[in-house]
Automatic annotation (TrEMBL):
SUPFAM superfamilies: lambda repressor-like DNA-binding domains (SSF47413), Periplasmic binding protein-like I (SSF53822). Residues 1-53 form the HTH lacI-type domain. Keywords: DNA-binding, Transcription, Transcription regulation. This is LacI family DNA-binding transcriptional regulator. CDD domains: HTH_LacI (cd01392), PBP1_GntR (cd01575). It comes from Paraburkholderia panacisoli. GO terms for molecular function: DNA-binding transcription factor activity; transcription cis-regulatory region binding.
Amino acid sequence: MSDLAALVGVTKVTVSRALNAPELVSVDTLERVQAAVRQTGYTPDLIAGSLASTRSDLIVALIPAMAGTVFQETVESLTTELAAAGYQLLIGQSGYDESREDALLDAVIGRRPAGIVLTGVVHSQSARQKLHACGIPVVETWDLTSEPIDMLVGFSHEQVGKAVAKFMKKRGARRPAVVTPSDRRAQARTKAFLEAFGKTKTSAAIPVVTVESPANLGDGRRALKELLDTNADIDAVFCGADILALGVLMEADCQGIAVPGRLRVIGYGDLNFAKDTTPPLTTMRVDGTRIGSLAATMLVECIENRAGNEQMVDVGFSLIEREST
């Protein structure tokens, strides 16, 4: 900033005002400072600025995976809503390993962002203690708990599983199977589905194939092969992710299995390809855009000491029925 001031021929205070409160300087001075910024490639030191002002404009969001996931709508909504309020969003990829998330949280808390958005609820006691103690506003998303750390926007994965079981029974399924990712939230949906569906027509246990999170299309194809090798009479498959359901549909087509005539398939997520599969995929949809918007609003209101309406919001979910069932 001293270099800029010398280049323009003004004080550091004037440069600071031009960068942070341009309405306080003349148009001529502002243009000269902006020209100097372009000439020198100067970028303000945001860490120093936040230390001086005791206020950060950075929000950190941790998501399990970056690409091709149900979280994309939430990230886009967070980015848009926070930018409109004058905040910048930094994304961290936490994966599905709880210990990795704890280590990433340590790094995040140490940098003192204005707020933190988490995917899922925090189960690690040490992480909960740190988040409680740090004083940074926190929003947990994409899950429900009776004991949130601070604020929460989500839905019940257990209720999703129960809703799928009820729908599958209504559609005439008698020998269902499950293909599920290994993460905690997917496992909660699976457990609820199994309990809600109950015993099959043959009283045999409902077969479940679990794949590593994040799942991919090939996992779905291999899972259906495995299921058919050991349970050739299955008539429905609940997939814990749309990408798995896409793999199941492709493998069924490869093996000449009619969907939904011989096999009903339902996914989770309503990703952008779900309506364009063959046949179009029935799936469970969660409004990720609303989750992001609510999380951003809650954070900004908390950071700026404005009274918010709710600290916990259940956004629910919806069944998108298409031709695959």
